[in-house]
Design goal:
alpha/beta; Rossmann fold; 6-stranded mixed β-sheet; 6-stranded parallel β-sheet; 9 helices; globular
Length: 278
Amino acid sequence: MSDATEAKAFGVLGDPVGHSRSPAMHGAAFAELGLPHRYFAFHVPPAGLPAALRGARALGLGGLNLTVPHKEAACRLVDALTPEAERIGAVNTVVVERERLLGHNTDGLGLLAALAELPGPAPARAVVLGSGGAARAVVDALAHETGAEIRWVSRRPHGLPPGPWQATAWDGLAAGLSGADLLVNATTVGMKGGPADFPVALPLHRLGAGARVVDLIYPRPAGGLLDAAARAGLVVQDGLPMLLWQGVRALEEWLAVSLPSEVVEAMRAAIGAVPAAG
């Protein structure tokens, strides 16, 4: 937990990380709360993650976020995991308790809060694309909180953990989309430096009427998945609302407080996390 009377450094570790809006988001929260803390984006390649986390422990940082590609590797490098992070197999938030690093995962709660900003009931049939840390958190949250029937699409479906979902390769995507009311892209397709296209074409016309399409990438890539989904009359959302809500949960863990609505809205404004429909 951070001491509010002492300025602390917080940050996000990633590769790439230059696109991150987390510094603006958390900076707005600290300003609204009247706290002297600062938040930075640190470019850390995979080989540097162990040293970066050792440094966080030695320097007594206030807390860290982890983004691509560090979420799964961090599970082996922190001192302890919350039950959710252990179950998911990925860490996106690190709480520094004295010299002890505690790994959390707030991505799943962030996804659920972001979905709540869109019209429609809880999903009944969901398709999740990708097998990294973000995908694992999304699948876990949907499985444990919504009871949705889930099809989890990966290049290596046999490597996915067992659970109440159907793992499938990309060649089974078309069948999985039929009648689904939620599609979540948790791959790096569309991210700067990531692949431009999915392994197969996405037949969005197979989704149910009024289905929601969520792309965790931000900023929204021009001409990408969400533009195609909007043209098909589907409800769309980029990754900013999930970024907002996972950040809210992370900040509450670091500061051991419940954030008031005005702080949440300052964070939202700082990153432009406006729900988009159609």
